[in-house]
Design goal:
The structure is a homodimer.
Chain A lengths: L3 E3 L4 E4 L7 H8 L3 E4 L4 H4 L2 H11 L4 E4 L8 H14 L3 E6 L1 H14 L6 H5 L10 E5 L11 E6 L4 E6 L7 E4 L9 H19 L7 H23 L4 H14 L13 H13 L3 H16 L5 H11 L8 H18 L16 H11 L11 H9 L3
Parallel strand pairs in A: 2-9, 3-4, 3-5, 5-6, 6-9
Antiparallel strand pairs in A: 7-8
Helix pairs in contact in A: 4-5, 7-8, 7-9, 7-11, 8-9, 10-11, 10-14, 11-13, 11-15, 12-13, 14-15
Chain lengths: ~400, ~400
């Protein structure tokens, strides 16, 4: 196990009716707020009404900023920053999924920064401060509600980049499983794939003896495998939604990654796909991840796949090592398929034309693509080729 | 899953050399501090020197308060409060195991309270504020380094009582696995039993569908089973000490208990034993826990034991339900024995004479003894009888 600092400061209000915590939180922390939303689903399903009731109850003046899209755009972030600066807002309340939260975090950091917020994504500059961010989560997927990361797309440049800082970790998040009831089957499934992939990115690691982290990671994967099909088929199952929602937050709040070297190659590749083609992140991951697994499997990495196969999929211990590993990867592919997620690039109408460009771009945008196995541009092209 | 608020604010500095974080933390938070220690082991093994070097480096004036005993006494807490008030101290730094930390927390809360700190333990009064507490942990066991609980014994009354409040949750804790190298085999083993029992108290619950919490709890138990014997036999194994240390903190920092009804009957019974006989908490638990398991096992509770047997001990799924449950309990007993922990009250020279008194006292001191199965005084006597 490596050294680490554990500092997960987000207060989570989890369960039915927890929107009631918004009022007291805002009274404590905010004078005038920006409420950020997406394309309108929170207005149709009643979540926005719950939030506004609480905000009004707390007598906190607010300005609404709606229309954040999936793969949130830099230009929306710029717009939000402009409003915050002009109106002297001191708090950002994100009501939505990961895209709305990521945009809110970038707005919060950009408002307190003199330069262009894009510097944080491209120049390695770290924000010194940010407006505090609160979230009301409506989709189990990114874990953004409990971590200090944000991913933004600059459309004109075809670049989807991330940065992380403790100053943008939300101060509180409301996780009411019922707020995820109206997410459709496709986005629910994409969320489950995203959660599982976050776990894989931290689980598949060369760090030895991080058993605490790895046994918890396996536990969270088993929760996804048990409840993933249930939330897809029975979207109003409270217990299934609750388990997927809480697993999603714990999958990427640092808990299972701290003390370990992490991988993140599948995300590096997928970010290029969704930057160029604007596909759903979960769909991209569903295509890439099992092929990444097959590509990195070797005598050197097989032991981690054996743990995965036995502890997550319950495979028989006494089989041949490579057989356990391959069977575990096949089970992963079959599970994503069962959720209705795509297996190949052709399923989402992506051809071979930009493979080289995307691979070069991934290598340029990430300090290193992959740690469990370091990938060069040619490796990324190979993985994309097996994904056709 | 039940509603919960997750707010685990302690910053953990985990790993080799993390005592270096003490200086910056004190500069940020303290003007003049109380350093609380136990019976002298931290002075013999060099931990105290590391701490003092950092404290002096931060130029924070300090007063030392040593001599806290296992099952820490109310009179020591009173003494510490007197020093803090007289010297106008504003921070308590605990250097030791659970007893030192628990005493420090009670001192921290008592210093800011006009009445007698014992009120918090007996009258249900909650502290409004406390001095901030930091810890340098030297024993993996109680989890006190990351939670808001304290357990204190009032010797003249033979009472060992607890209270919990967010205001006494440590603001930071230093977890350097090497600081646990010199813990002897007996106390190392007792710590492992304590950690496992904390997990059991939260795991064995009537709350349904808290899979996230339960799969993580099982993972932590598996870490204890893998590394418990290693830390006993090979006390300087960094990886084994690291895993047990981190598992101990996560076992009782709220993570695996929130969203669930918890049990705590074994602790209610053991607190009476160690209040009356001053035995080691872990030894008392080793005797009680498997007998508590046997006593509460029934057709109504068997499913939880099946999860425990299969997911923690890897038992064969296809056996008879009750057989899996009994086998899992036998494995628990055998594991505690393997660690060198006692199986029966006679092993620690405790006779039958105070069974009734202890049972009555447990029922008096706890709002309810047991939630997985509610225990009356007569049930506690029965469990004690099977422990002879």
């Amino acid at each position: 196990m490596l050294n680490f600092t554990h500092n997960i400061s987000t207060v989570i209000y989890f369960g039915r009716g927890q929107a009631a915590a918004i009022g007291p939180e805002l009274r404590k922390r905010a004078k005038k707020i920006l409420i950020v939303t997406g394309s309108g689903s929170v207005k149709r399903n009643g979540v926005f009404d719950d939030v506004i009731k609480e905000v009004k109850g707390s007598k906190t003046p607010f300005i609404e900023f709606s229309g954040i899209k999936p793969n949130p755009r830099l230009k929306s972030v710029h717009k939000g920053i402009e409003i915050c600066k002009k109106e002297k807002l001191d708090f950002v309340l994100a009501v939505g999924g990961g895209s709305v939260i990521d945009a809110s975090k970038a707005i919060a950091a950009g408002t307190k920064y003199k330069g262009d917020v894009w510097d944080f994504f491209t120049k390695g500059i770290k924000p010194v401060e940010a407006l505090p961010v609160g979230t009301v989560l409506t989709l189990a997927a990114t874990g953004s509600e409990m971590n200090g990361n944000t991913v933004i797309t600059r459309e004109d440049a075809g670049r989807k980049l991330a940065f992380g800082s403790p100053v943008i970790r939300p101060v509180f998040s409301i996780l009411d499983p019922r707020y995820t009831y109206t997410v459709n089957k496709y986005h629910t499934a994409a969320g489950v794939v995203d959660i599982m992939t976050h776990i894989f990115e931290q689980y598949f690691s060369r760090t030895e003896a991080a058993d605490v982290q790895d046994r918890m990671a396996e536990g969270l994967l088993r929760v996804c495998i048990k409840y993933g099909p249930v939330v897809c088929e029975n979207p109003r199952s409270y217990n299934a939604r609750a388990n997927i929602l809480w697993a999603g937050s714990l999958a990427l709040n640092d808990l299972i990654g701290e003390g370990k070297e992490e991988d993140w190659a599948s995300h590096a590749i997928e970010h290029e796909l969704s930057a160029v083609y604007d596909i759903s992140h979960g769909a991209g991951l569903s295509i890439i991840v099992p092929n990444w697994m097959r590509y990195v499997l070797s005598e050197k990495t097989v032991n981690k796949f054996i743990d995965y196969g036995i502890n997550v999929w319950g495979l028989e211990k006494n089989m041949d090592k490579m057989k356990i590993a391959r069977e575990a990867i096949n089970k992963t592919r079959a599970f994503f398929n069962l959720l209705g997620m795509p297996s190949s690039l052709s399923d989402v109408n992506i051809g071979v034309e930009h493979f080289k460009k995307m691979a070069d771009s991934a290598v340029r945008d990430w300090p290193r693509v992959g740690h469990f196995k370091n990938l060069l541009a040619k490796d990324i092209v190979e993985i994309l080729k097996t994904s056709i």
